[in-house]
Amino acid sequence: MEEEHDDDDDVWNASAVILDIDSGSWADRSPLHDAASQGRLLALKTLIAQGHSVNALTVDHVSPLHEACIGNHVSCARTLIDSGANVNVTTIDGVTPLFNACSTGSVTCLELLLECGARPQAMAPCQPSPIHEAASRGHSQCVEVLISWGADVDYETRNMGTPLYTSCRCREFVCARKLLDGGANVQRGRLMETPLHAAAQRDSVGIVKLLLEFGADVNARNLSFKRPVEVAPPGGLTEGFLLIYEATPRSLGQLCRQQIRECLGRTRLHLIPHLPLPKALKKFLQYR
Fold it and tell me: Which of 22, 101, 102, 160 is positioned for an S-S bond with 106, CB 3.0–4.6 A?
């Protein structure tokens, strides 16, 4: 939970705030930046009332809203937005307040930004991606919120591949599950390397099993023409499991489930609970 500092000492005038900037701050940070980063709500409101711009930027284009979101100071973020802060402002590196919310795992800041018009995903492959950031850090609730707001679960960046690939590389099982439930393509990773390759390399047998349940191709080859079992640590649990899996025929039930989900398509998977089917069958189709 965020902590807002509302005591009387927080009602500063502008000159007092400027003098209070600590030695580690950037020279071009405004009083609003410091108030937002420290969660000082009363000070923030006082400064705004005094005429300080909520869209003031540092030389690196960091805004007070960036600071509020990275600190999970929701009330400060709401005050800035209500006062006209740009929710889609980007730093010189392309980082948005939404990215910062995902970085720190602030679901409340994330939802606030989305409700106020923030774009749920990066606009270019070279821009830092919020859903990749959330997936890499294990912030599964942020991943779920982004998916519900229309973020592309198969959005691929040059360095990180797809969000599913990223979650597998970082051994984030719950995030991988959220992405797969959201319709992520189990075969799309980075270049020719699949999420299954990434999970095998990390010896994450739990994620490997999950990917295989969702139809991952155990015989897919990467740029080095290696299958997942060939990139797994020799003698590890993953290598042993994959060797057994390769020699075991797939069950008819698993094959049927994958085929039905594929026919439905990602955009209609959410309709499975409404199908006129027995409850047990609907759960089966949802991997419940």
Answer: 101
Is 82 within 8 Å of 51 (Cβ atoms)?
A: no
Instruction: Decide: helix, strand or coil at residue 126.
Output: coil
Please answer whether residues 11 and 46 qualify as being in contact, where contact means their C-beta atoms are separated by less than 8 angstroms.
yes
pLDDT computed for residue 181 by the predictor: 92
Instruction: Say what the pLDDT of residue 120 is.
Output: 96
CA 14, 16, 21, 23 dihedral sign is positive
pLDDT at 273: 86
- Residue 53 falls in which region: left (phi positive, over 0), alpha (psi -120 to 50) or beta: beta
Structure tokens at 47: 């400064």
Q: Is the pTM of this model over 0.85?
A: no
Gap between the terminal Cα atoms of the chain: 31
Determine the Cα–Cα distance for residues 181 and 266; give it in Å rounded to an integer.
Answer: 9
φ, ψ for residue 190, nearest 5 deg: -135, 120
User: Across-strand partners of 161?
Assistant: 157
Residue position matching structure tokens 């949802």: 286
Positions in the chain whose pLDDT score sits under 70: 1-27
Report all structural domains of the chain as residue ranges with CATH numbers, in order of start: 1-119 (1.25.40.20), 125-248 (1.25.40.20), 253-288 (1.10.750.20)
Q: Which residues pair with 193 in a beta bridge?
A: 190
Amino acid present at 25: S
State how far the Cα of 251 lies from the Cα of 238, in Å rounded to an integer.
Answer: 20
The pLDDT of residue 27 is 54
Q: Kindly state the tokens that stand for 252.
A: 């008819």
